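Let's sit down with a protein and look at its sequence and fold side by side. Please make up or recall a protein chain and show it to me in full. Label the sequence line and the structure token line clearly, so we can match residues to local backbone shapes. Go ahead whenever you are ready, and we will take it from there.
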Amino acid sequence: MSLAYFWIFIFLMACGLPVVFALLIGPGLSLALDGDQVFYKALLSRLYNGMDSFPLMALPFFILAGQLMNSGGITRSIVDFSQSMIGHVRGGLAQVNIFSSVLFAGLSGSAVADTSALGKIFIPAMTQNGYSRPFAAAVTAASSVIGPIIPPSGIMILYAFIMNVSVAGLFAAGLVPGLLISFGLMAVTSVIAKKRNYPIANRRATWKERGTAFRKTSLALATPVILLGGILGGIFTPTEAAAVAAAYALVVTIFIMRTLKARDLPKVFVESAVQAGVILLLVGTSVVFAWIITVSGFAEIIGSTMREASDNVYMLLFLTNLLLFVVGMFLDAGPAILILGPVLGPLFVSMGVDPIHFAVVMCVNVTVGLATPPLGLVLFVAASVSREKVETIAWQMLPFLGVEIAVIFLITYVPAISMTLPRLLGFA
């Protein structure tokens, strides 16, 4: 079998065809050109089996839980609580933006949802309070990548599914890197705020006011506690946890907080179904593409080429980080994981790297890619919300990207940062 499918895929992507169609047309057209139509039945079977998976059912439920929370106005309560805690420092509104992203990550697990929901609140507010609009958009975009790193995380579920890695272990491994990124972003923001003399958002809140703000958002903040406690405690599987999260979000927003009406549910369900359908179709086509890569021997070619480049695992990890960073500039996180995971994962596992360690390195890499030009999806969402040019936002993001790249190399070469918690919990 020739490698024509790969070049067809690259050509179709360069022409602007949506990645889901490029992933399917590339192998299909290549089989026709090679006269291997006998593989069509296997191709269609792989496409269906790629989506027909119980673990993947977690994705639609997590998406639904996030949509319910966001549509129910939970975002506003998170912002109010964040502002009561750290809004009194220099550049407080920017710090509140980052802190809100950390809290929002435990609800949605999506960088795009974070950018859209929080951007609509913070970008206008920061602009009105003396921040430049490009900086406000840059802070929002940079902090939104925390969403898929701190659990629950859609891309971690994808990686766990395709590479047969423990979802719970991967969730545990992502917690500390996500917090490290948030602390780094806050430190950089503090330096920039002092240099540019950005304003203090509001006076220091009393503990009574903080308690009131916490009570208003406590039901929402209980979501990640229930999820992670249930998964890590072995009470339910990640898929069951996602269903519990969706049910909990429904009860909280409709019956307890009453911020969502029954008439709003059809729109929420439709939006969730569309998002889930897009992701599951992408998974199916990526499974097909990964299968073709294996059958054609391309994975072995890449593996042998990397081994010939160096037999030092640390050097190969460095080269892989560079590769993933470049790939992240052009390819969305989901396709990058589904295509490159089966190629790179086995190579590093065979060299003694823990599967969960490499998984979290790859997931953080491709997530940061969402905020890198020229095709970072988060950048375009931030540009749309702020009405600023992508290149202007990207320029303001450079200090934040520096922090995120530094964290990537830290977790790459100091495995204990991400692996201590999974080991304590018995997942590694």
Q: What stands out?
A: The chain has a mean pLDDT of 85.
